[in-house]
Amino acid sequence: MNEMKFDPRELALFAEQAVTKAGDRISELRSREKIEVNYKDYGELVTSADLLSERIIQEAIMGKFQGHRILSEENGVHNWDNFKFDGPVWVIDPLDGTVNFARNLPHYGVSLAFALDGVVLAGAVYAPDLHCTYVGIKGEGSFCNGERLRIRTCTSLQDAVIGTGFPHDPAKVEPAIERVNRLRRNCRDIRRFAAPTVDICYVASGKLDAHTESLSPWDVAAAGLIAREAGALSCNVHVVPEHIPNELYGEEAVFTTPGIFDDLLTLLRKESE
């Protein structure tokens, strides 16, 4: 596949427009009527807003990029580990932070990324209630509301504020709590905002020094690019399966300012041994 066929700037602009339209619509929907709430596996919420946002973004993609495949949190591709990432793929998180959204908490976002053969070329994350639009363009930087993003310089775990999260599956909560305990003992403080697409963008903007938790492709695709283009490093605590692209593998994902990369990874790997 010839990468020159795709202009990352145009793709980023399209992603920005799509997430902005979807985010504004669901924000308006919530202010106008009661949001219908249902439940997925392990009690995870899905609302009428998730589905509306997904429909808006999917229609925009299908209208402009016929033949491109779509991987979205809500469209039934739950065994995504068998998904073929070759060629052009759009990765959607129509509403990240659904519980926050349903409770009128501002920390939620809409995310869209474009990947070619597993490499993310462009992405956008829109947080309507925070009035932040994050955009990343591979090789050209990342931005919030048009202003270039740069990570915070941090060279000591003791000085680091690190974001993390908890899984929906109760069986996986205990290791996450152990991770929190280990992080808290070794860094300045931790944060749990419960919308990882926005949390990872906080690493890009220097609000957090790192973010780590087990995530899915739609959580890390756009936000991961935004963080890397701002100077962050990304990796996973354990080896990435061969058939899944590194940039789209969220399990035990780590996004961090370079100065604490080695120490943070050592800490996280000790915990999981």
SS element count, helices? 7
Rg value: 17 Å
Strands ordered across the widest β-sheet: 3-4-5-6-7-8-9
Tell me the strand percentage band.
15-25%
Mean of residue pLDDT values = 92
The SS-based structural class is alpha+beta
Count of strand segments: 14
- The termini sit apart by 39 Å
Percent in helix? 25-40%
Low-confidence stretches: none
* Helix/strand order, N-terminal first: HEEHEEHEEEEEEHEHEHEEH
The geometry reads as globular
What does this structure look like?
The chain has 7 helices and 14 strands. It has 273 residues and is an alpha+beta fold. The strands form 3 sheets. Strands 3-4-5-6-7-8-9 form a 7-stranded mixed β-sheet, sandwiched between helices. Strands 11-10-12-14-13 form a 5-stranded mixed β-sheet, with helices on both faces. A two-stranded antiparallel ribbon has the order 1-2. Helix 4 packs across helix 7. The model has no long low-confidence stretch (mean pLDDT 92).
